[in-house]
């Protein structure tokens, strides 16, 4: 086995890491952690440190680590048939079965699923299909996409544009001109304190409608949003938000893309966030929880309404000019089939709902009165603690103090991994669905102790 210092040196010399301060990492100025194994909700590094992963990797190891059912399905598929493509109508037992399992779980008005490999490429597919859709319908001007500030939809050229976080635009010449952003449904950071949640939702819908009218509804193709804002701060929508937004979209004949990369397959305690909040999307983006990250796989689910136009398009123009070599890769599909079956067999969606409710309530109880905790919010197994300088005024902490990063480091000392969300002073939690109440208590204790040790 290679020595840790050897791996550390090779890492810093050779590996360009995503979402990393490249200079500091290469120069050895920032810590690194080499993960070697994992089981349930725990990961272990090469030094033997065992940590409760309260972020499920990147909100993705939903079924938990070390699931032999999924590992065996991957190995069996690799031995039997490692690869065949899905172009020109080809399929495998795994990919066809998985498509059926997805459509059995999706809202009734959805029609078919296209397979990709990541949330980013699935959203890329969605936008291409939306442009194709409007070209087939003879409205070539209707192409702009509205996203929200603080939305996260990936980090490609189009998807990085859809993402509404500064870090993903700055110095990358993004967003592209076809993408425009509207207000985030971030009730805690509302401008007007006197607004109720419902009034704030109505305000967000009015802002959206004003933007559509400024741009011209005949130039706007679609609106994309996560049922619960994820990477932008784990922000559940205020009461009435999705109803108000959907009324505007319907009025102006604008398609809705529900990006369910985080919420799909159970994180909110329901199979889809669309079901949870009463969304009727034209596209649903899925990824992470589809295989619980045992293999890279994503999907674009299209509605009956969209499907009919796609069918018309290929009748008029020939085969759809879109596809990846690894679309519906059989090894990934086998992982998906085993994972969705496991989630059903173990009742993990219900567990995400009940333990998620417990975690959120316990976090509020423990921290709701702390003078530097402005907001504790969440839904299902998503939870966030937002830190402030002053509770009453919601005054922000000085970002140069890097308080949230210090707290999250202190939590690692307590044996728990949480995430510093990229914009604002927000600690994020998104544990695997197999979390127990005892493990939820451990997360809350570690957070409380780390906040008290850092801020008093
Ligand atoms: N959409 C949402 C809501 C996400 O949270 C993410 C990733 O976190 C993506 C899209 C992009 O997925 P990927 O990182 O697999 O490209």
UniProtKB/TrEMBL annotation:
Listed GO CC annotations: cytosol
Query: Which Pfam families does this entry report, sorted A to Z?
Result: Aminotran_3
Keyword check for Membrane, yes or no.
no
Q: Which Gene3D superfamilies match?
A: Aspartate Aminotransferase, domain 1, Type I PLP-dependent aspartate aminotransferase-like (Major domain)
Keyword Cell wall biogenesis/degradation present in the record's keywords: the answer is no
Which InterPro entries does the UniProt record give? Aminotrans_3 (IPR005814), Aminotrans_3_PPA_site (IPR049704), PyrdxlP-dep_Trfase (IPR015424), PyrdxlP-dep_Trfase_major (IPR015421), PyrdxlP-dep_Trfase_small (IPR015422)
GO molecular function term, any single one = pyridoxal phosphate binding
State the UniProt keywords alphabetically. Answer: Aminotransferase, Pyridoxal phosphate, Transferase
What cofactor is needed? pyridoxal 5'-phosphate
Q: Which family does it belong to?
A: Belongs to the class-III pyridoxal-phosphate-dependent aminotransferase family.
The cross-references to PANTHER family, in alphabetical order and at most eight, read: AMINOTRANSFERASE (PTHR43094), AMINOTRANSFERASE CLASS-III (PTHR43094:SF1)
**Protein name from the UniProt record:** Aspartate aminotransferase family protein
Q: Which organism is it from?
A: Pontivivens nitratireducens
């Amino acid at each position: 086995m290679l020595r840790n210092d050897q791996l550390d040196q090779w890492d810093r010399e050779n590996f360009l890491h995503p979402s990393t301060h490249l200079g500091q990492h290469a120069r050895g100025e920032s810590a690194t952690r080499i993960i070697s194994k994992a089981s349930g909700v725990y990961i272990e590094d090469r030094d033997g440190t065992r940590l409760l992963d309260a972020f499920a990797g990147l909100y993705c190891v939903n079924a938990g680590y070390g699931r032999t059912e999924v590992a065996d399905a991957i190995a069996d598929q690799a031995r039997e048939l490692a690869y065949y493509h899905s172009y020109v109508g080809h399929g495998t037992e795994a990919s066809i079965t998985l498509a059926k399992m997805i459509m059995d779980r999706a809202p009734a008005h959805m029609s078919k699923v296209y397979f990709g490999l990541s949330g980013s490429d699935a959203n890329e597919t969605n936008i291409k299909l939306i442009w194709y859709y409007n070209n087939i319908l003879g409205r070539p001007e209707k192409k702009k996409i509205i996203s929200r500030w603080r939305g996260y939809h990936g980090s490609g050229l189009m998807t990085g544009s859809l993402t509404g976080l500064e870090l993903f635009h700055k110095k990358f010449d993004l967003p592209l001109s076809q993408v425009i952003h509207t207000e985030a449904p971030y009730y805690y950071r509302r401008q007007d304190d006197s607004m109720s949640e419902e009034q704030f939702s109505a305000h967000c819908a009015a802002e959206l409608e004003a933007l559509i009218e400024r741009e011209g509804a005949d130039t706007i193709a679609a609106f994309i949003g996560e049922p619960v804002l994820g990477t932008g701060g784990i922000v559940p929508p205020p009461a009435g938000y999705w109803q108000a937004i959907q009324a505007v979209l319907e009025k102006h004949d604008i398609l809705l893309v529900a990006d369910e990369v985080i919420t799909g397959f159970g994180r909110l305690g329901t199979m889809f966030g669309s079901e949870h909040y009463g969304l009727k999307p034209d596209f649903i983006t899925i990824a992470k929880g589809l295989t619980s990250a045992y293999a890279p796989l994503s999907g674009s689910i299209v509605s009956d309404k969209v499907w009919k136009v796609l069918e018309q398009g290929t009748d008029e123009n020939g085969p759809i000019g879109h596809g990846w070599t690894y679309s519906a890769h059989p090894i990934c599909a086998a992982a998906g089939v085993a994972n969705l079956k496991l989630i059903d067999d173990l009742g993990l969606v219900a567990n995400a709902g009940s333990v998620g409710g417990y975690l959120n309530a316990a976090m509020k109880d423990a921290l709701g009165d702390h003078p530097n905790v402005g907001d504790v919010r969440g839904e299902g197994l998503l939870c966030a603690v937002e830190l402030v300088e002053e509770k009453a005024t919601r005054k922000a902490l000085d970002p140069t103090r890097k308080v949230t990063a210090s707290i999250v480091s202190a939590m690692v000392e307590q044996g728990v991994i949480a995430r510093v969300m990229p914009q604002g002073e927000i600690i994020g939690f998104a544990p695997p669905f197999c979390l127990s109440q005892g493990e939820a208590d451990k997360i809350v204790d570690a957070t409380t102790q780390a906040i008290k040790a850092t801020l008093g």
